[in-house]
Amino acid sequence: MGGLAVLAKEAGHRVTGCDANVYPPMSTQLQAQGIELIEGFGCEQMALAPDLYVVGNVVSRGNPLMEAILNQGLRYTSGPQWIGEHILQDKWVLAVAGTHGKTTTSSMLAWILEDAGYHPGFLIGGVPVNFGISARLTGAGDTSFFVIEADEYDTAFFDKRSKFVHYRPRTAVLNNLEYDHADIFPDLAAIETQFHHLVRTVPGVGRLVVNARDASLDRVLARGCWSEAERFGGQAGWELGESGAPDGSFNVIHDGALQGTVRWELTGEHNRLNALAAIAAARHVGVPAAQAIASLAGFRNVKRRMEVRGEAGGVTVYDDFAHHPTAIATTVAGLRSKLGTGRILAVLEPRSNTMKLGTMKNALPGSLEQADLVYGYGARDGRDALGWDLQQALSPLGPRAAAFDNLEQLVAAVTRDARAGDTILVMSNGGFGGVHQKILDRLGAGPGAADAPEMKVRT
Questions:
Q1: Do 317 and 373 share a domain, yes or no?
Q2: What are the start-end ranges of the E strands in 202-249?
């Protein structure tokens, strides 16, 4: 919704917005764009008298402002519908869908097109470092291309279809698909149905770029496919060649022919697959593979995706958005491949709706296996409170894992255990109470500050 606000303002509208608990980088982006952000959903905002209310999927019945809008019969629409009708019309839309990697792959694709002179518009669920903003209508000059992160979460309380059915892409990346969003989907089959709805919207002259390793996507396409489909990550189509070099470089192969070598700063098999998808999608609009490969050398990732937040006392602190066990596992594995035997202290807040329900709690220990020490945080009460025992869930990891319901105690434990040469990896899809800076401040304050008494873990 923050990115939508940026697009609306760029299109010439006066934009205000309201939400609860907005945190960086989106809050700072909105401030930089001069978009007024109001905390909370009070009915007094009706005095703004807007021409249209654009409603995000966080809003539900019972929200005081929404109830007032309904009672007075005022005009409203969903964010995805507004984008589809006012931004994406007459555009060549390149949509990136999948349980994991949407933000990173969308950012790669937007950068490839930018570097090739296509100057695309884009709407991405994070802030690509290359652009410094999550959304724009167009780059230098006019463009017919628009890259959008295509989310499978529902559109709004009054439209339970996935957001991406509103986007009508000509190029659609299906990056991967597994069970998530347990708060709205009963099972994997229900999500597969939504993905097939997306497939149904791609025209016959369009193209699907599909992960060849994903059985769920095979089932989706088996229901019917009316567009050309290219595969990546398998033994045909777009393949990963030699990889595992210390610098993270890898070869790209298409239909058995070497296209070039990606030389960049990113790590992990998941990012190599993301790159293949972006290269394949860019080729559909005319960017040669060699050009896309060269462009990725200049890709600078996305804020909150393995972002170095700072270093203190010889300890480096990373921030990552990982919150699903699969994403946690691939993030830790990517860092492990980079560090070798260096110690990883993983700090985790399982606060997504799916994780708070406990649906995937049993997968957490396995996802953190490659970390040396694990610190989990679960709020005792409030909107982010867990409905299950985090310490018990982490117990298969033994004494190297601890759970906390007090943030200051967690910070004290992490900084007590950290030593020069360690890497602290913080993973959360929220602001996590500013824990990154708290850790850095305490590490930077010297040994006395970090030598807090040992804290009892949550039981």
A1: yes
A2: 207-211, 228-232, 238-240
| Structural domain harbouring 442 | 307-450
DSSP state letters, 28-85:
HHHHHTT-EEEES--GGGGGG--S-EEE-TT--TT-HHHHHHHHTT--EEEHHHHHHH
Euclidean distance between CA atoms 331 and 270, whole angstroms: 8
Largest CA distance in the chain: 66
Nearest 5°: CA angle at 65, between 61 and 71? 75
Closest CA to 106 of 166, 56, 171, 202: 171
pTM > 0.85: yes or no = no
Q: Are 287 and 145 in contact (CB under 8 A)?
A: no
**At which of 49, 76, 103 does a domain end?**
76
Q: Please give the average per-residue pLDDT across 209-225, as a whole number.
A: 96
**What pLDDT, on the 0 to 100 scale, is given for residue 455?**
33
Q: State how many domains the chain has.
A: 3
Q: Please report whether residue 369 resides in a domain.
A: yes
Within 8 A by CB and 6+ apart from 288, the residues are none
- Is a pLDDT exceeding 60 seen at residue 454? no
Tokens 């097939």 belong to residue: 196
132-141 contact pairs (CB < 8 A, 24+): 133/6, 133/29, 133/33, 134/2, 134/3, 134/6, 134/25, 134/26, 134/29, 135/2, 135/3, 135/4, 135/6, 135/7, 136/6, 136/7, 136/10, 137/7, 137/10, 137/11, 137/87, 139/114
Residues 108 and 173 in one domain: yes
Domain closes at, from 76, 100, 133: 76
DSSP calls for 399-422: GGEEEES-HHHHHHHHHHH--TT-
Could you read off the pLDDT of 344-392 as tens digits, one per residue? Answer: 999 999 888 777 778 888 889 999 999 999 999 988 777 778 888 899 9
Task: Decide: 316 and 423 in contact? Cβ < 8 Å.
Answer: yes
Q: How far apart are CA 278 and CA 15, in angstroms?
A: 32
* 281/296 Cα distance (integer angstroms): 14
Distance, CA of 48 to chain centre:
32
Q: What is the spatial distance between Cα 270 and Cα 213, in angstroms, rounded to a whole number?
A: 12
